[in-house]
Amino acid sequence: MAILSSHSHKCIPSSSNTVVIGNLTGAPLSPLLTFGFMPRGKAFDDWRPANPATFGSMYSSVAMQLGLSVVLPLVVGQVVRGVLEKRTAWVLQKLYFSKVAGSFMLFMATFSSASKTSAIYEISKPSIIFDVFMNLALYMVFTAI
Hints:
Blueprint: H1 2-7, H2 12-37, H3 55-83, H4 85-94, H5 97-116, H6 125-144
């Protein structure tokens, strides 16, 4: 972020917008560029991302997942914050909602894919305990900073 802000003359909003635009355009362009520039031949067939005919369904699936998991919660949160401004401020300050939500998201990010693939049942109990305590330690360190 420091490099981006120094190139934008220390303008944080400008560098943030650049990062957001790059992330939004990079996701759909990466498979197309990979497919377009990869040499043809049997040696590279295993490395191709997908058949170009499946790109439409792949992009619509990704857009739906992003919309439901990122855009919709952001829009609902901003509407609630705008309509119930005083109550939202009270909940955030008195109930330490940001810390609770942050710790919940930390655990969900760690265990959501492991639960979905049933890989969590193959992990040893000491490894899970270590992972939980390591996540808690990281959360406390970054909260203190």
